[in-house]
Amino acid sequence: MSEDTAILEKVHRILEYGEICDHCLGRLFAKSSFGLTNEERGKALRIAHALAYNIPFKPYEHGNCWVCGDLFDEIPRWAEKAAVASAGIEHETFVIGTRVPPMMSESEEMLWGDIGLEHPEPLKSEMNREVGKAVSAINGKKGDPKNPDVTIVLNIADDCTELQISSLYFAGRYLKYQRGILQTHWNCRACGGKGCEKCNFTGKQYPTSVEEEIAKVPVEVFKAEAGVLHGAGREDIDARCIGTGRPFVMEMVNPRVRTADLKELEESINKSAGNAVEVRLEGWSDRKTVEMLKSHKGHKTYRILVSVDAFISMENVEKAVSELKGAWISQRTPNRVSHRRADLVRKRQVQDISVLGIENGLYRLEVVGDSGLYIKELISGDEGRTVPSLAEILASPAKVTELDVVQVEGLSNNGA
Ligand SMILES: [Zn+2]
Ligand SMILES: [Zn+2]
Q1: How many other CB atoms sit within 10 Å of the CB of residue 280?
Q2: From the CB of residue 63, how many other CB atoms can be counted at a distance below 10 Å?
Q3: Could you say which architecture CATH assigns to the domain 168-295?
Q4: Which terminus in the chain has less CB density within 10 A, N or C?
């Protein structure tokens, strides 16, 4: 039996199930001939079947397909719905998704199994493609299944569309000049963000955050629902972040606008953030960069002020500090964060450490450490949880009274 005969025998069995449209018939053999639409292939198979079985050719009569209920006759109507749904949202690219009623997919899957079809195309993907083409013809937007600005879902059963807007990202570095500001928004502990008397009905634990200071303007510019800050690590609430600043990506959630002049945006953000936070924007970004940023392990440079209880000469402090240079520090999760982080022992290296001078009886130190090195504990020893520490070497209590992040290494691939 030749391949053609085998296919026509399958067509014969399929036609016995009941009336089926050219789309659904052609789709069952989607990968066996190239360059035809499913509808064209379905029609050709119907003609070839009539010839082979010596019966009169009868074109498909619309209104009777037992698989799709003639869904494909409604492509123009669905395309119009999709175009209307996305009309108020700025976008260049889109993708169509179809929520197929279970009855329809069960019908075609039954045929796949019964007839033993090897290369069928699911109804959903023909619908996505054909409605996509029709939407492009209406509004000139480009179909892009990999990286769409918007996704328009056709909900067949409920006869409606659902719109999903992809997040928009831009990258830069931020500087934090004021202490007492967290990196990201924290919900009020008492009400969990709903708003209560304790938080003055703001839902916030702290009046502001780096995230909020940066997001305020772009949320308006991009008509977004929210702005989420993704930072390359974070500094403590009482630490400043100066010098080169910290790399970040800002995510705009559900933006209705996707274009802006980033230079102007930077200026407006900096004007609105006052003197607490400053940004230097570097360009547009994406989800992949956010993931790289999160797993990024760059060295960080800190400037700290250290107070030492005992009177120890500058020379001896310098000697003690030099013992920490290049040392591997074994750090058990610090007491101050142990309530929210797993209790582990980690090893981190001090790349460089030096004494810059004395200020009002306090030592000014610069430390370059592996990402994740706890600086306050490197000095205090955290009751023996961090070993070695400056306090241990000096045999005197010592602690950080002020901490600034002065440099965070960026991602090597974009030179940031
Ligand atoms: Zn059909
Ligand atoms: Zn509250």
Answers
A1: 13
A2: 10
A3: 2-Layer Sandwich (3.30)
A4: N
160-165 sheet: strands from edge to edge: 142-143, 93-99, 150-155, 160-165
Percent of the chain with pLDDT over 90: 82
For the structural domain made of 300-408, what CATH number should be given? 3.30.70.3190
Ligand nearest to the CA of 196: 2
How far apart are the C-alpha atoms of 339 and 232, rounded to whole Å? 23
- Please state the length of the chain: 416
Distance of CA 323 to the CA centre of its chain: 42
Query: What integer is the mean pLDDT of 130-156?
Result: 96
Q: Which ligand has an atom closest to residue 74 CA?
A: 1
Q: Tokens for 36? A: 């035809």
- The structural domains of the chain, with segments of one domain joined by +, span 3-165, 168-295, 300-408
What is the 228 CA–ligand 2 centroid distance (Å)? Answer: 21
Report the separation in Å between the CA atom of 30 and the middle of ligand 1, taken as the mean of its atom positions.
14
What is the Cα–Cα distance from 379 to 328, expressed in whole angstroms? Answer: 14
Task: Tell how far the Cα of 187 is from the centroid of ligand 2, in angstroms.
Answer: 8
Q: What is the mean pLDDT of the chain?
A: 93
Instruction: State which amino acid sits at residue 306.
Output: V
Among 149, 236, 382, 404, the one annotated catalytic: 236
Angle at 414 (CA atoms; ends 255, 227), nearest 5 degrees: 20
Q: Give domain 3-165's CATH number out of 3.40.50.300, 3.65.10.10, 3.30.420.270, 3.30.2300.10.
A: 3.30.2300.10
Ligand nearest, relative to CA of residue 198: 2
Q: What is the pLDDT of residue 72?
A: 96
Q: What is the pLDDT of residue 413?
A: 39
Coil, strand, or helix at residue 9?
helix
Tell me the CA–centroid distance for residue 201 and ligand 2, in Å: 6
The model's pLDDT over 106-132, given as tens digits with 9 standing for 90+, comes to 999 999 999 988 889 999 999 999 999
The two domains 3-165 and 168-295 share their CATH topology (first three levels equal):
no
Interval between CA 188 and ligand 2 midpoint (Å): 5
Residue-wise pLDDT for 241-266, tens only, equals: 999 899 999 999 999 999 999 999 99
Neighbours of ion ligand 1 (CB under 5 A): 21, 24, 65, 67-68
Q: Which sign, positive or negative, has the C-alpha torsion 127, 133, 138, 139?
A: positive
Active site residue 286: no
For the segment 64-73, what is each residue's pLDDT rounded down to a tens digit?
999 999 999 9
